[in-house]
Write a structure and sequence with these properties.
The chain has two helices and eleven strands. With about 160 residues, it is mainly beta.
């Protein structure tokens, strides 16, 4: 498996709960001065770490469990779960190519809202453009370099990055 796109990942009720929580003005976002790599410091974004260092790091973990159920991932398999919030830009800026972890792993990138931002997967000599469409996810091998591309049509771009073994 190199990559696979999934539509309608969550039920309507689970999706609305997740979208409402992440979009609320009470959701705790944390400033990240770089995107992808420390050298990628011309742009910034906000994130919220749900799971890291082998433990749940957020009261919002239960909102993510329906996604984990969809991809059949148990907590013991998790490396990291991070919710991202990219702010609107004047053009579609690309982050640097990167992988999320050096260990052998899988990535499930879940899109919370629809916008004209996207993800680029670098497969050999091909660039695969994965659009940001709400309640859609892309599963790919963790050794595939990828790039986040900012949006220009919505105030924010929300996605959830799940890394697991």
């Amino acid at each position: 498996m190199k990559y696979k796109i999934f539509k309608d990942v969550l039920s309507e009720s689970d999706f609305k709960k997740l979208e409402s929580a992440i979009s609320s003005d009470g959701f705790p976002w944390y400033y990240s001065p770089t995107i992808a790599k420390n050298s990628d410091n011309k742009r910034f974004y906000f994130s919220h770490m749900i799971y890291m260092n082998d433990k749940i790091n957020s009261d919002y973990y239960n909102l993510i469990t329906p996604i984990l159920d969809f991809i059949s991932v148990k907590e013991s398999q998790l490396l990291r779960i991070k919710v991202n919030c990219f702010v609107r830009e004047t053009k579609n800026f690309k982050s640097l190519k990167h992988i999320d972890d050096e260990r052998k792993h899988k990535v499930f990138l879940y899109y919370v809202n629809s916008n004209n931002g996207y993800t680029i997967l670098h497969l050999n000599d091909k660039k695969i453009k994965v659009p940001s469409i709400k309640n859609t996810g892309v599963l790919f091998d963790g050794d595939i370099e990828h790039q986040a591309v900012s949006q220009t049509d919505t105030k924010v771009r929300h996605n959830i990055n799940i890394n697991y073994i």
